[in-house]
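Bench log. Compound arrived from synthesis this morning; before running ITC I wanted a structural hypothesis for how NAP sits in the protein. Inputs:
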Amino acid sequence: MDARRIDAVVVGAGFAGLYMLHRLRGLGLETRGIEAGSGVGGTWYWNRYPGARCDIDSLEYSYQFSDALQQEWEWTERYATQPELLRYASHVADRFDLKRDIAFDTRVVSAHYDDVGQRWQITTDRGDVFAARWCVMATGCLSSANLPAIPGRESFAGAAYHTGRWPHEGVDFTGRRVAVIGTGSSAIQSIPLIAEQASQLYVFQRTPTYSVPAHNQPLDPEVVRAVKSDYRSFRERNAEQAFGFGSRQVRQAQGALAVDDARRERVYEERWLEGGLPFLSTFSDLMLDPAANDTAADFIRRKIRTLVADPAVAQRLTPTQVVGCKRLCVDTNYYTTFNRANVSLVDLREEPIEAIDAMGVRTARRHVDLDDLVFATGFDAMTGALERIDVRGRDGRPLKQKWSAGPRTYLGLATQGFPNFFMITGPGSPSVLSNMLPSIEQHVEWIADCVAHVRARGATTIDATRDAEDAWVEHVNAVGAHTLFPSCSSWYLGANVPGKPRVFMPYVGFPAYVSKCREVVARGYEGFTVA
Ligand code: FAD
Ligand code: NAP
C-alpha cells in the first residue's frame, strides 16, 4: 500500500495528543492523530472504574494554554470525577476542532525511520501507512494495562475486569462476591464503592499502601473566583513547586526533625485535614532523609490504627516501606471500609495466590469463591505503550533493543538515533512525579518550538547526541539516587512487571527540569544535531 505523505503523526488522543495536534496544526503542519480508543481522553477514556477521579485539584489538573478555556470551564468538585474529566477532554477537542484529524479505533503497530527519505513510516492495525516527517508519541505513561501472570487467570468463569479497561456501560456488583487484586491508587478509589454494592468483597493485598484523605468537596465559588481572577500567577506559583502543584497548601521550609515532636504532630494533623498529595511536602526533607520520612510514615500508621476497628486488620493494612517511594494514594473512606462486615482483607504475604480457577482464587490457605474479579494491578508504566509499538530508528535499530537495559533518553523528550521522534512525558522527564497536565503542556510547547526551529533553519532533522543522552541518563539517576524514591519495589522502577529492567524512570524536580529545557534551547538546542 502506498504511504500517505503528511507532515506529522501524533499517536494517542489523551491530554498530550490533543494539545500536540493543536500546536502542530498551528504551525501549519498537516497532522494526523491516531488513537486506539473510540474517543478522546486517554486515561479518562479507559479508566471508568467506580470512584475514578483525579487526585490533584482540578483547578490545577487542567490545561492552561488557553486562558479563555480555563476561564470558561467550571469544575464542580475539588477532584473531578472520571466522567467530568472525560467531558472536559471532549470539550477541548470540540472547542479546538481536533476530532476531524484523529483516526479512532486505530492502533499504531509500527514506526520505522527511513534514513533516505528522512521520514517515519507509520503503520496501523487497519492497514494505513503514513510517511511523516515528525512522529510524536503521546501514548501515555499509564496506558498499558498490566495483568499479572497468575496461573489459571484465563480460566476464571465469572466476569474479570482491569481497572484501566473498564466496560463503558459500567458494572453492577450488587449482591455479588467480588475480589479486588491490588491496593494501589485504582484499588484505593474503587474498593469503598464496590464494597457498598457487593455482597462480599475480598481485597487481595500484596503490599499495604499509605493513603491520605482526599477531603473531596464541591468547589467553593470564592476559591474559584480567587484563582480565576489571576490564573496566570496561580499557575506560575504551582510551577515553582518541586512537583509542579500545590502552591496553596502551606509548606514548612524546614526539615521534619528541626521542629519538636508536638509541633511536628500539629503540622501533620493540619495537613491531614487539608488532604491530598501535598502531605508529602509537609516538611522539606521527607523524600530525602529516612528519619524525616519515618515521622510521616509513623503518623499515617497511627492514623490507620485509629481508623480500622480490628487491630489485626489494622496491622495487616500498615505499610512498612518509606512513604512516597510507591506513589502516595489519596482516598475517600479507604481504611474504614475494612470495618464493614462484608469486606475481608486477604494478606498475600501470609497466603500467596497459588492459582485462579473457574470458581475463584486459590491461596496457600483457602479457596475464595467469586462471581467477579477486579484486577487493580496497574500498568507497564512509562515504557509499556512505547515498547508495544515496533519502533525502529536509524539503521533499523529497534527501540526495544536500545532500551533493553532500561530507557535512555535526552530530557525524556528524544532518544538518540531516532531523529524527529518525540515522546511526551517520556522516561527521564518529571512526568509521573509531577502534575501531569503542566508537564504535558511544557513538553508539547517545547516540541512545537523545536519543530518550528528546525523548519525555520531550512533543516529537516533533529537528533539527540550520544554524549548529551549519556550525560542526561546519568544525571537523572544521580538525582533519583539522592532521594528516597527508588528505595522500594515500585512501578517507577519497573519492578511491577516481571523481567523489566529496574531503572528509576522519572526525573525528580519540575522547576529544575523546566530550567534545563529552556537552557538547552537558549544554547541553540544544545545536545542535539540539526541537519
Ligand atoms: P493517556 O491519557 O494515557 O493517553 C494515551 C493514549 O494513547 C491512550 O488513549 C491510548 O489508547 C493511546 N495509545 C497508546 N498506544 C497507542 C497506539 N499504539 N496506537 C494508538 N493509540 C495508542 N496524573 C496526574 O497528574 N494527576 C492525577 O490525578 C492523575 N490521575 C490518574 C488516574 C488514573 C486512573 C490513571 C491511570 C492515571 C492518572 N494520572 C494522573 C496520570 C495520567 O495518565 C495523566 O495525568 C494524563 O492523563 C496522561 O495523558 P496522556 O495523553 O499523556 O496519556
Ligand atoms: P499500582 O499503583 O501499580 O498498583 C497495583 C497494585 O496491584 C499494587 O498494590 C500491586 O502490589 C498489586 N499487584 C500487582 N501485581 C500483583 C500480583 N501479581 N499479585 C497481587 N497483587 C499484585 O496501579 P494503579 O493502582 O492502577 O495505579 C497506577 C498509577 O496510576 C498510580 O500510582 C497513579 O500514578 C495513577 N493513578 C492515580 C489515581 C488517582 O487517584 N488519581 C488513581 C489510579 C491511578 P505491589 O505493590 O506489591 O506491587
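What the model suggests: The longest helix spans residues 436-456. Residues 11-17, 34-37, 42-43, 45, 47, 52, 54-56, 61, 107-108, 138-143, 164, 186, 385, 389, 424-425, 435-436, 440 surround flavin-adenine dinucleotide (ligand 1) (CB under 6 Å).
ITC booked for Thursday regardless.
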